[in-house]
Amino acid sequence: MRLTLLGTDSQAGQCPTLYATDRDTYVIQGWTVTDPEALADLKDVLEGETFVEVPKALLRFAKDDQAEVDR
Questions:
Q1: In 3-state terms, what secondary structure has residue 53?
Q2: Cβ atoms within 10 A of the Cβ of 64, count?
Q3: For the chain, what is the domain count?
Q4: What pLDDT was estimated at residue 42?
Q5: Distance between CA atoms of 7 and 12, rounded to whole angstroms?
Q6: Which terminus of the chain has fewer CB atoms gathered within 10 Å of its CB, N or C?
Q7: Residues 6-51: pLDDT tens digits?
Q8: Quick check: 5 and 69 in contact, CB under 8 A?
Q9: What residues make up the domain containing 12?
Q10: DSSP per-residue string spanning 15-47
């Protein structure tokens, strides 16, 4: 799998960051969800799956994942 950086709200290389893959999916770098109440609300979690929390504003980068990233 190859990743393409779409965008970040990060300061000094910290998360969150959004990537597109060459498999028509996204990879999100964010904060691990550890809150027991939030985890209890999740449905049909398969072995090997994980969850990260990112700000809603980060998904603006997914709107056009073919656009060049400003660097």
A1: strand
A2: 9
A3: 1
A4: 95
A5: 14
A6: C
A7: 988 877 767 789 999 999 899 999 999 999 999 999 999 999 999 9
A8: yes
A9: 3-62
A10: SPEEEEETTS-EEEE-EEP--HHHHHH--SPPT
- Name the β-bridge partners of 31: 53
Residue 20, phi-psi category: left (phi > 0), alpha (psi -120 to 50), beta (remainder): beta
68 in any annotated domain? no
pLDDT surpassing 90 at residue 59: no
Write the single-letter amino acid at 15.
Answer: C
Return the H-helix or E-strand segment holding 8: strand 3-8
**For residue 18, which of 9, 68, 27, 10 has the smallest C-alpha distance?**
27
pLDDT at 28: 92
Q: Is residue 67 part of a domain?
A: no
Residue 71 covered by a domain? no
